[in-house]
Amino acid sequence: MSKQSMTKKDEVFLSRRRFLKSAAALAAVPAINSILPKTALAKAVEEALPHFRYTKTAHKGILSAAHWGAFQGVVKDGKMIDAIAIDDDPAPNELIKMVPHQVHAKNRVKYPMVRRNYLEGGAGARKEKRGNDEWVRVSWDKATELVAGEITRLQENFGPSSIYAGSYGWKSTGMFHNSRTLLHRLMNLTGGFLGYAGDYSTGAAQMIMPHVMGSMEVYEQQTAWPVVVESSELVVLWGFNAMATLKNAWNVPDHEGQAGLKALKEKGTRVIAIDPIRNETIEYMNAEWIAPRPYTDVAMMLGMAHTLYSENLHDKEFLKYYTTGFDKFLAYLTGEVDGEPKTAEWAANVCGIDAETIKMLAREFAKNRTMLMAGWGMQRQHHGEQPNWMLVTLAAMLGQIGLPGGGFGFSYHYSSGGSPTAKGGILAGINAGKAPKDSPAPIPVARIVDAIMNPGKTIKFNGRKVTYPNIKMVYVAGGNPFHQHQDTNTLLKAWQQLDTIIVQEPYWTASAKHADIVLPATTAYERNDLDMGGDYSQRYVFPMHKIVEPQHEAKSDFDIYVSLAAKLGVKEAYTEGKDEMQWLKEMYDGMAKQARANRVPLPPFEMFWNANDYVVFPIPEANKRWIRHADFRDNPLLNPLGTPSGRIEIFSDTIAKMDYADCAPHPKWYEPREWYKADIAKKYPLSLNTAHPTQRLHSQLDNTPLRDKYAIANREAVMINNQDAKARGIKHGDLVRAFNDRGQILVGALVSADIRPGGVRICEGAWYDSDNPGQTGGMCRNGCVNVLTFDQGSSQLAQGNCGHMAQLEIEKYLGDAPVNLAHTSPKNA
Ligand SMILES: Nc1nc2c(c(=O)[nH]1)N[C@H]1C(S)=C(S)[C@@H](COP(=O)(O)OP(=O)(O)OC[C@H]3O[C@@H](n4cnc5c(=O)[nH]c(N)nc54)[C@H](O)[C@@H]3O)O[C@H]1N2
Ligand SMILES: Nc1nc2c(c(=O)[nH]1)N[C@H]1C(S)=C(S)[C@@H](COP(=O)(O)OP(=O)(O)OC[C@H]3O[C@@H](n4cnc5c(=O)[nH]c(N)nc54)[C@H](O)[C@@H]3O)O[C@H]1N2
Ligand SMILES: [Mo]
């Protein structure tokens, strides 16, 4: 295999306009509940077809899947009461157990609801009351009439750029009930919409890497785990917490990354971790922990690069044959251009790690077969382009890129990058259809609030210019802007500018509470779907059977859009005449055809669906030995990188031509907007870390009992070093106010030695709950960290978000503890 690549957020759009030959055959498909236990026929098929795996826990429940794993849902008296991970899962987790709680959560959106003033006064009426208005229950017919009417009004009067329907978010798994793509499909049939570019995850890295490596690197297959276990002598975990982040995946996780880490641990490979926090992966691997000042990694890497150069440890052959521009970078590294040599001593003064340690690290990296594995937290920062570029430069100087167990990897912590790729078939998801010709150009995803606030403003973006249109409506389905976006108070202001906000959701999240029209969506467990298991391994195909009937008046996203399509006169085009099961059969058949071409025969759809089983594709031996960039290393002329030079660009002419003051044409240390040496640190001395939550997926599952395990004083936890806590008279378990000039939140003190002094961690994803609803400046009673972050692009190149960075102060909260209403439904709802 010469190149393995995949994208995360954009499903593989295989356009198959083929219609079902026999829809009638499907009518015979019985409901899953009626076909358990397994039929004799299914058992016979399974014996004949080894990749059609009999669910070992069969008969316990109904097979389905989520971001946190595949499981069987157990139902009693129409209610889901348990979820049991499949036996093939090498690292089943506690999130799976929350599935029944998701279905039966108290704060489900039960009926379509409209904000009273909106219902009575129309679009834009009393918009300042959003978040603090009454809710009125309406019929589905009325709700869809309002939504369809507003789409029509805006398309006619202002055109597609007035409707932001990008709808970024992690929704649920399932290749068909993809709330976002299905929304795009509707909008494309009705005049187009304003969408987004990039994502919140790798906003900076995915834009800079193509200039440097010719590919995004962050969503690409990594050197296979068996190779790492066998060949790496030193593994460096740089801002990397895979034991937490691998619990979830974009599709259904295969959890093979945890198996890889376990094997590494059992072998006793040396592991060094660089992170301001001694996170659970460091703990699990018992790694050597180096804790730099937050946001200073680029300086630290420069100090190492300088050591390699000055001690003649860099690989000159590799730099010569496989890279371009090292000489120009060198002039910066040695201080020739700015009078500032980036020595280990210089770096020590910036990152707070002593020069001897920095030098030791550089020498160890050079001496051993070293794999640099990096997470994405440090690129979700101001100048977040630089850590990735500099890490690649460091790896290039070490000269091990393309060798077994050497080089760098930017996706070992995500969706099990490095889990060897199987050979079978791939499910194509539902497609968004064709965008109309005059569709507006997308805006960088994290600039949405800036765009709403500043229509007509032009910004720079990766060599292009983007002019913000006049956005009048936001349609959210499968995302949670009140958690995902930085600087919540500014978001609130922006939300108050809009004519209409529609939120399609299973729960009364803060985003729902601040909308005009709320449409109740089912969870994934109330509908039928299919998904792949293993984003990189593509190893499994899971049926996602409906486990319980839709709760209350909730409808699947597909059914909601079909009703809207009917009102907008595009129903036939939208459904192509197919219902849920017909779409699933078509997706399965397309996948099975590819599998057959790969000599992996699969049973017909009906049999697959009825058997409560899943498919496990074989993994070719060669893929277990796969090494990222080995082909490039073997022959850079025949297998050039996708960069202009075909080589690793340590200096980029493309970026030089952009001429951005905040993104030089070579990796460079920039002082960030907020950090411990900035003026702001005198007032707000603590540096914020907003790591992803171990026992949640962002905001998802915050309304389940798992919260009892991590909430402190009934709020999101703030991790703080013992010394910093002591200096402020804060004890473990105390209620604490965290604040800066942008806002204030209540959190519970988690006092610990596992965080470097000067840093605090408040995980992203707590549901926003203001004590002054709808107004800016209120205190969030649940600890939504984005109240404290700033909303600025990483640089003009990537315009990525800076969610992982902010200065703040904390103090013991002395008032009466206010009631936390984050997980309650509004009155009458
Ligand atoms: N400060 C800071 N901010 C961050 C980050 C950070 O590190 N720091 N991380 C960023 C990153 S990487 C990301 S990816 C974003 C994530 O941000 P989001 O993707 O917005 O986070 P989720 O909590 O997954 O939101 C998904 C929402 O979809 C709803 N949902 C689930 N299933 C369905 C469905 O089938 N249909 C519909 N209609 N709705 C459904 C859920 O209830 C939930 O409200 O956050 C970003 N924000
Ligand atoms: N359990 C769980 N798993 C998830 C998610 C989730 O919400 N929960 N979200 C999924 C998604 S959408 C994404 S994008 C990925 C996110 O994956 P990542 O972005 O890699 O995860 P983070 O937790 O934000 O950051 C990883 C590590 O970086 C460290 N870090 C932060 N700032 C710095 C710094 O300045 N320097 C250094 N050296 N280290 C730093 C943090 O302390 C943390 O240990 O995870 C995915 N998996
Ligand atoms: Mo993400």
Automatic annotation (TrEMBL):
Its cofactor is Mo-bis(molybdopterin guanine dinucleotide). Mo-bis(molybdopterin guanine dinucleotide) binds at residues 170, 380, 480, 527, 557, 786. CDD domains: MopB_CT_DMSOR-BSOR-TMAOR, MopB_DMSOR-BSOR-TMAOR. It is found in: Periplasm. Residues 108-566 form the Molybdopterin oxidoreductase domain. Residues 686-801 form the Molybdopterin dinucleotide-binding domain. GO terms for molecular function: electron transfer activity; molybdenum ion binding; molybdopterin cofactor binding; trimethylamine-N-oxide reductase (cytochrome c) activity. PROSITE patterns: MOLYBDOPTERIN_PROK_2, TAT. Pfam families: Molybdopterin, Molybdopterin_N, Molydop_binding. Binds 1 molybdenum-bis(molybdopterin guanine dinucleotide) (Mo-bis-MGD) cofactor per subunit. Its EC number is 1.7.2.3. One of its GO terms (biological process) is anaerobic respiration. Residues 64-104 form the Molybdopterin oxidoreductase N-terminal domain. Keywords: Metal-binding, Molybdenum, Oxidoreductase, Periplasm, Signal. GO terms for cellular component: outer membrane-bounded periplasmic space. NCBIfam families: bisC_fam, PRK15102.1. Belongs to the prokaryotic molybdopterin-containing oxidoreductase family. This is trimethylamine-N-oxide reductase. It comes from Photobacterium marinum. The lineage of its organism: Bacteria, Pseudomonadati, Pseudomonadota, Gammaproteobacteria, Vibrionales.
